[in-house]
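Materials and Methods. Structural model of Class I SAM-dependent methyltransferase. The 231-residue sequence of Class I SAM-dependent methyltransferase from Streptomyces atroolivaceus was retrieved and submitted for structure prediction as follows.
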Amino acid sequence: MRRRSTPVPRDAVHHPVFARFYARMSVAADLKGGVAAHRDELLTGLSGRVIEIGAGNGLNFAHYPGAVSEVVAIEPERALRQLAARAALRAEVPVDVVPGTAEALPVKSEAFDAAVASLVLCTVRDLPRALAEIKRVLRPGGELRFFEHTLAPGRALATAQRAVDRTFWPLLFGGCHTARDTVAAVEDAGFELGVYRSFRIPDKGAQLPTSPCVLGVARRSAVVDRSAEQD
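The predicted structure was written out as C-alpha cells:
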C-alpha cells in the first residue's frame, strides 16, 4: 500500500518573483539611494529585546547597536527569509529569523522592549490588526520605530498613489500600498506618537508613488488598562 506524503504547508505570503527583485533593488537603494543612513537613524539608541516585523532580506541587521541583546526577526516570505537568515549570521547582535505574519506574531505578549517596522506596513493585509499585534508584544512603555512609505501631503502625488494602489502596484510589488497614512494608523492603534519626520527617496528628481516616506517613533503607554482582560 502506498503511503501518502504529508503536504508541506504554504507560506502565508508567497511572492518569489518580487522577492528576487526586492533583494537586488534594496541593496542598490542602500548603497546608492541613501537608505542605509535612514536605517542607522531608525535603529540608533535601541537596547534590550527587539522584534522586527517583516525583516525582508535582513538589511537592518548590520545597523543594530550593541546594546540590543536579541532581535527576533519575523519574515513571512520564504525566499527573503532565507536571505535574512544568512544576514543574521553576519550580524554583530544575536538575530533569530522566524516565519510569521504581522497580523499573528508568533511570540508572547509584552515580551519586547522595542519593535521595528521598516518598509513593511505598506504590504500587510490588515494594517490595524498588525499594529494591534505590535502593541500586544511590546512591554508597557516599549517603543515602535517605523520607517515606512506614506501618503503624500501634495494632492497630485497622493492622487497618483491612490490610483496605482487600486490597479497594478500591489500586484507587481509584493502587496505594497503606497497611499496608507502611516502616522494616522499608528495613532489610531493607540500608540503615543513621538518625534517623526517626512521625506522623499530620492530627495531630488522624479518622484514615484513610493517616494514619500516617514521615519519616527511611537510608544505603547506605560499605563496598561487591565479591566478589559478581567471581563
